[in-house]
From TrEMBL:
Residues 124-501 form the AMP-dependent synthetase/ligase domain. Keywords: ATP-binding, Ligase, Nucleotide-binding. One of its GO terms (cellular component) is mitochondrion. It comes from Hyalella azteca. This is Acetyl-coenzyme A synthetase.
């Protein structure tokens, strides 16, 4: 079990950039951004903030570096975004209004009277200009089997998928569920939907049948696209079987397309169609559907603090612009680069920095289907050498894992192509940062820690200086708020991490529940977007992320609501109460600790119940959601009003047994004593 004294500090907090009281107070002139961003660190020369801008537009010749760009984006927001919106995207009908927001109803609109097509922007315009440029490099599970797809080939794939979907009756606005491994056909399916104005909902291919079914149903998808099976780390993943089990629970699904991903012959049920065959049969490409800028582009489900995952709705133009711009700015993207983001397309990182950002910029993007340790711990760096990757973007959890295997796995491969190393999804601890910088990057690459969320659509905060891991903000204004929604600037202050301006990439609503959107993100702190994360301000004004303020935990970079796990465990006939909390873990960042109370009449041995619970969580959610620790107690500590004292359980799960804080509101102090005793007896 993790003990806080075991050496590796997991929650060494992440610094995220100076903050900008000036902007909040609406006078930008009292402090220059150079002062705000200045740092005396030995790494400061690596700082993107003061470095010249990558080529984005020649419309702002006066902007020489990132901080000037940042200031301008906040001061002249509509001019800034409007200019970039026209420059970076291709429009069928130009917009006349840049932004129109109604804060009262949390309704945000960007470029709303403009019309465009997302797939044309990602593929067709580049296929017309440079058809033979490689769009995708599919790095398959087995090393050395990569496949390259040019823009011309990708265009044809997208046309064909769009044709298949149209022939099956899918039209603009319909939702299409995608349950596929990272692969060219997955990208073509996302963009095939976009071509005809359908809304894709990619479900991570590690999710269980139950989890897939609930997402299909919430989205009201009538078509599912999957594969017969895939392999990851050499292990076969039976996608079609899982998809079948999900579809059995979804009467609304009328058609399932199955990609023959692995060589086994396809076996098809009545409602299943061979996707590859259907694609070859398409005679004419459906014309791109001309969509409104604010039409939904995709749904993406993410965990919140209540049981039901939220279907975030991202719309078209604003999302595309934000993904494209941040991809260029944060990663210093240049034509000819090979961009290697190793995230799965089932997460927002995969959407924005495997698919949309790189393709919008006409880039070459790597689709990584494997794991960091297959066939050994050198896999990432062997791939970097073979594909000549220029930017590598991954998660701290993998870095923490790999550094334990030693430097040789890195050093034996040529990494001279690398310029930028990115980190995303969770705080990067100092040991991992240093190793990434010194060993992987040979001390010459920029390491950039990026903070953002499924809700934000793209990177919000980025920083290249280790002591300030986290960042300077990206064209949005991060602020620290006290409990009343008042910004706080005192050093040492802690508060809620909020954003004070509306940026184009923000999710516009939660599918079918706009009230929940408003209540979650805008009601807590008036006038501010609330991220759900907490932060602390240091002596120099930088913010350090301290972790989630709600009941969301982060296991290996995967977001998980504790209520989701509790809901599943409560289904067990012998369980009467559960409380699930996160506790620090040396590799995963956080892991899951479940406290349980059994029913009076429960007769099964505890280990049997625990095994059943683990199985059930895996079956209903996914493997990463399975609790690592379980403690069965006769009762859980509760307040006099009957609420479980989670704060206390969190302390116990962390092993902070001495410092349990205020226990005066406990209804039954003996319950804590028993839990503590049982905890001490745990193996
Ligand atoms: C956490 C992933 C510290 C944070 C793109 C956030 C981070 C949640 C960082 C979003 C970082 C993400 N440092 N924490 N650089 N990046 N987080 O929606 O708690 O899967 O709220 O989006 O991950 O997770 P999501």
């Amino acid at each position: 079990r993790y003990s806080p004294s075991s050496g590796l500090r997991i929650f060494s907090s992440t610094a995220i950039g100076p903050t900008f009281p000036q902007f909040l107070l609406a006078s930008a002139s009292t402090c220059t951004s150079a002062q705000r961003f200045s740092t005396t660190s030995k790494y400061s020369s690596e700082n993107i903030i003061s470095s010249p801008l990558p080529e984005i537009t020649n419309k702002f010749p006066q902007l020489k570096n990132y901080s000037q760009l940042y200031d301008f984006s906040l001061r002249e927001s509509d001019q800034f975004w409007g200019t970039l919106g026209s420059e970076l995207l291709q429009w069928n009908e130009p917009f006349t209004t840049v932004s129109r927001h109604d804060h009262k109803s949390s309704t945000f609109r960007w470029f709303h009277d403009g019309k465009l097509n997302a797939a044309v922007n990602c593929v067709d315009r580049h296929a017309a200009e440079h058809p033979d440029r490689v769009a995708l490099i599919w790095e398959r599970d087995e090393p050395g089997h990569e496949q390259r797809v040019t823009y011309r080939e990708l265009q044809e794939m997208v046309w064909r998928v769009a044709g298949v979907l149209t022939e099956s009756g899918v039209s603009a606005g319909d939702r299409v569920a995608i349950y596929l491994p990272v692969s060219p056909v997955a990208v073509a399916t996302m963009l095939g939907c976009a071509r005809i104005g359908a809304v894709h909902s990619v479900v991570f291919a590690g999710f269980s049948a139950q989890a897939l079914a609930s997402r299909i149903q919430d989205a009201g998808a009538s078509v599912l696209v999957t594969a017969n099976s895939s392999t990851r780390g050499g292990r076969l993943i039976p996608l079609q079987a899982t998809a079948r089990a999900a579809v059995a629970l979804c009467p609304g699904v009328r058609q399932v397309f199955v990609m023959p991903h692995s060589p086994q012959p396809l076996e098809l049920a009545d409602n299943e169609v061979d996707l590859e065959r259907a694609m070859s049969a398409v005679q004419t490409a459906p014309p791109p559907s001309v969509q409104g800028a604010e039409d939904p582009l995709f749904l993406l489900y993410t965990s919140g603090s209540t049981g039901k995952p939220k279907g975030l709705v991202h719309t078209t133009a604003g999302y595309l612009l934000y993904a494209a711009l941040t991809h260029r700015l944060v990663f210093d993207y240049k034509p000819g680069d090979v961009f290697g983001c190793v995230a799965d397309i089932g997460w927002i990182t995969g959407h924005s920095y495997v698919v949309y950002g790189p393709l919008l910029n006409g880039g070459t993007t790597v689709l990584f289907e494997s794991t960091p340790v297959h066939p050994d711990a050198g896999r990432y760096w062997e791939t970097v050498e073979r594909l000549r990757i220029t930017q590598f973007y991954g998660a701290p959890t993998a870095i923490r894992l790999l550094l334990r295997f030693g430097d040789d796995f890195v050093k034996k491969y040529d990494r001279s192509s690398l310029r930028v190393l990115g980190s995303v999804g969770e705080p990067i601890n100092s040991e991992a940062w240093r190793w990434y910088y010194d060993v992987v990057g040979d001390g010459r690459c920029t390491v950039v820690d990026t903070w953002w969320q499924s809700e934000t659509g793209g990177i919000m905060i980025h920083m290249t200086v280790p002591q300030r891991r986290g960042s300077g903000t990206v064209l949005c204004c991060a602020v620290l708020s006290d409990s009343q929604g008042k910004p706080v600037y005192d050093s040492g202050a802690t508060g809620a991490l909020c954003v004070s301006s509306i940026w184009p990439g923000i999710a516009r609503t939660i599918h079918g529940d706009h009230q929940r959107y408003h209540d979650t993100y805008f009601a807590p702190y008036a006038g501010l977007y609330f991220s759900g994360d907490g932060a602390r301000r240091d002596d120099e004004g930088y913010l350090h992320i301290t972790g989630r303020m709600d009941d969301v935990i982060n296991v290996s970079g995967h977001r998980l609501g504790t209520a989701e796990v509790e809901d599943v465990m409560m289904e067990h006939p012998e369980v009467s109460e559960t409380a699930v909390v996160g506790c620090p873990h040396a590799l995963k960042g956080e892991t899951i600790f479940a406290f349980l109370v059994l029913k009076e009449n429960s007769a099964s041995p505890q280990h049997k119940i625990e095994t059943e619970l683990r199985e059930s969580v895996k079956h209903n959610i996914a493997s990463y959601a399975v609790p690592e620790f379980m403690l069965i107690a006769p009762a859980l500590p509760k307040t006099r009003s009957g609420k479980i004292m989670r704060r206390l359980l969190r302390q116990i799960a962390k092993g902070n047994l001495e410092d349990l804080g205020d226990t005066s509101t406990l209804a039954d102090p003996a319950a804590v004593e028993t839990v503590l005793k049982l905890y001490r007896q745990m193996p």
